Amino acid sequence: MLGKPKIRKPGDLPAHRLNGRTGCSAAGWMRNPLVRSRGLLSCPNVWKQQDKIMSVTLHVCITCKAGETVPEGTACPGTRLHAALMAAGAPETVQIVPVECLSACSQGCSVALSSPGRWSYVYGRMTESDAAEILSGAAAYANTPDGIVPWRERPTIFRKQSLARIPPMVLA
Q: 3-state DSSP: the chain helix, strand, coil percent, rounded to 5?
């Protein structure tokens, strides 16, 4: 028999219940791209250090205007945010990729975090002054097996400015 489920605070979802037979959350089984060629199954709760080499992509919308009128020939806020992130330097396992649009135009500058087998997130209302916090959040995301950073460990902008959380694709 399993003990009491782990009590979580609002925003700390999903609460993982462990399957007594496998020690893994019931929904946690997915194919790990690193071991797919060997036909092995991997569970996020049994994540190994070598899985950290999976790269994380930080998508940055470079066309975001953040509600500003941008004069011809000047960089829009999204381009400036991308430049600030590139100047600050990405964490080791994070790749910063500019994209044309993340369809969050009413939410100011937006970024998205994604990685194979992990939850993906879209964040809005970002500015170039948020670069350090964005990179800190990307590093925390990269250090998780499933993309879910515990609520209290997330940078404030990731707690307050999340626009979407997208489940991982499960490869059959």
A: 30, 20, 50
DSSP-derived secondary structure letter, 139 = H
Cβ-contact 93, 8 below 8 angstroms: no
User: For residue 68, what pLDDT is reported?
Assistant: 84
Domain boundaries in the chain?
Answer: 50-166
| 19 CA to centre of own chain | 26
> Could you tell me which residues are beta bridge partners of residue 25?
18
CATH code of domain 50-166: 3.40.30.10
Look at residue 54 in the predicted model and tell me its pLDDT. 54
Q: Low-confidence residues of the chain, pLDDT below 50? A: 1-2, 5, 7-9, 12-52
Q: Phi and psi of 53, rounded to 5°?
A: -70, -10
